[in-house]
Fold these 4 entries.
Entry 1:
Amino acid sequence: MLGNIVLEYQPRTYRDYRDAGRFCTFRVTVETTDLYVKALRRLERETEELVRECRGQIEAAIARRPEFLSSLTPLEEDPRDSPAAMRMIRAAIKAGVGPMAAVAGAVAEFVGRALLALSPEIIIENGGDIFARVDTPFVCGLFAGASPFSNRVGLKIEPTGLPVGNLYVVRDGRALAVVWQGGRRGGGFIRRGPCRRGGDCVGESYSRACGSPQGS
């Protein structure tokens, strides 16, 4: 729950909780927030504390401005907003959506950046939005539901502090993945809307969703 709205939980059936190589793998849940974490050591307690801190900042923004939760269009910046809320607002402005479109990426990035002080390599997935900082390349598998390509296609991510955006499947089977520096932006760019080229398209600024370099 955020504010007075109960958010529907979606089971994360695509996750693999086995430890792999140098990474420890664990899960942290706080109400509807459900994080999948790979770190160089187990950091469940620290991760939960950070999730609660981030959720508290977002809930405070909703309490002060209820439209923060319900708006489908960007809100203006308010200097009284917390760092987490401000990042969501700025990401939403770039994408032309409401700030809650960036909530999953915002939580993943907030937690990930703080955990870097304890684990110099970290991967955090939150409902499809990923924050990653690694020293060697890794492959991010794409989950596309019942599509025959689900879990058979991946993105190779080079060593960088690069958050990986969401994956969204449109009803005719198309899927889009967004890679963006700044984890809270990915989810904001992946939304359904009328495409300028006809049919349905995924993403904000429809030119970006239709292949413009600025959207990658």
Entry 2:
Amino acid sequence: MTIVVVGSPTAAGRDERLGDLLGAWFGRRRVVLATGDANGQAHAEAVLRRRRCVVVVLIGPGWGLAAHAPDASPARALVPLALARARVVVPVLVANAPMPLARELPPELAGLAKRQRIEMRDHDFARDAVRLAQALSRHLISRRLAFGMVDLARSILVLGPNPTWRSVVARVVYRTWLVLAGIFAAMVVAFGPVATLRFVVVTGVLIAGIPTLRWIAVRAGRRARRA
């Protein structure tokens, strides 16, 4: 998952700080920062046209008015492309900026007002960045789960000529492990290794414990009937 951070002239350096925090969470190579310089904007535009990205748009004070300006600002140039091509577009409010209404924005940017926004406070910027990263990670988990199940179903349906039951079972087991491994990796990114390991252990105990308790209950019932 590639994350494009679209800066704002009124963000006062918060775009770079957010890019650094998301880079520390997801990896530096997965975060593309589009600031006011032409090179960064051109690179971000190329990435948006080549991949289906997650786009974070920083909105500072007066962002709606700046969006009407005729200059080639990142907000003006990249947001319409992001709304058309990106998987997710998240408006991020900084410096106590309000969310512009759809009628206050140009027509090509009006769709941004309908997206779910998140507010980042200066006194708790790092924690809010973690909250944003966790929300994006949950989106990644749901997408991996959905695509993994589709891939699993496709692997079962497309088996080639004369499939044997062993090949069917082997493919299902292999694909299932791939899906579980992808979900586990995404959970480690989203919630950390300790919380993920705790969840896996508790889930394993519940999965193994329910059949065991049922077996004990059945045995106890049989003994009671015999007595």
Entry 3:
Amino acid sequence: MRNGSRISVIIPALNEEKAIGKVIAAIPAWVDDVIVVDNGSTDNTPAIAAAHGARVAFEPRRGYGRACMTGIELLEQADIVVFLDGDFSDYPQEADRLVDPIIEEKADLVIGSRTRGLREAGALTPQAIFGNWLACTLIGLLWKVRFTDLGPFRAIRFSSLQRLGMCDPITVGPWKCRSRRQRPACAASKRPCPTVNALASQKFQAPSGESLAREPRSFTQFSAIR
């Protein structure tokens, strides 16, 4: 619990045995509940997650969004929900920078941006950079709301999440809601956080013999939306 708010973390995971234990170990002690949703791993991801104290759920239907929503269904008395990838490309210990603006009633949703400032080479592929730019540009044109990234490291007030009306169980997860034509009321704040290359996994394979030690090398921003 942090300042009277119960915090839950949901981690969708697919073949992240090299990273998932490090991710869970780096989550702050004030987090009340850690849920790892295994999305069909063929390695030891579920066993390692359980050994590190996480609740493990299984979602055999592939899809990042499906895994996220399975985790949401398991939430127990959460006030704030943090979503985090299982590849250790972000810094879980900096979750306070996401949840504190919500606790302080400054925002309902806080998204970590990976595109501002310095970042480790290769942490974002050209496709990811372009895709985020395109999505953020379209959101800005349609709803007049400015984003710099739609990254996976984010926190949201649980009551707000329940009101979103998620509709895409395959790709974008709980941050895509049913289409609304009205323009949402928004405010923004910016806060630094680091992002680096993921540890070796199905999605990111480290070169043979390369050290998997992580060091903070980059800083990005947080955007808070009310």
Entry 4:
Amino acid sequence: MMRANPRRATLEPWPSSTTRAYEIPTPDKPWALLTGDGKRVQVRAEVASATGEGPSRHLRAFKSWDFDLLLVILFNSTYQVQRATEIPAAVAEGAASFAPKSNGYVLVATDDILDELGADLTEAFRELQEST
């Protein structure tokens, strides 16, 4: 459940091994969520193409790696969860490449990359989406 509040959002239960609460930090931080145990989470959500490839799998450039976890959520054309993966930031950084045009690091969220790098949370996020 997501509670709308300009200073705080809580997601319960978090589709992981433990229930976590998240706070939205100030806009000057490179992360969007803070777990109850202090992990900083950057979220990248995209609408993926039907083929699962193409520009929609290119995540917005990372200007900083000052966070602990990357949460990648891919939606289909009707905004249903197609894929959700949690990746340690250091692992994502190692797989990203520098893009001079955006002056940041880009990661293409292919299924192979997501399978190799992270923990699959797809079913848990689908259940969460269906329950709201």
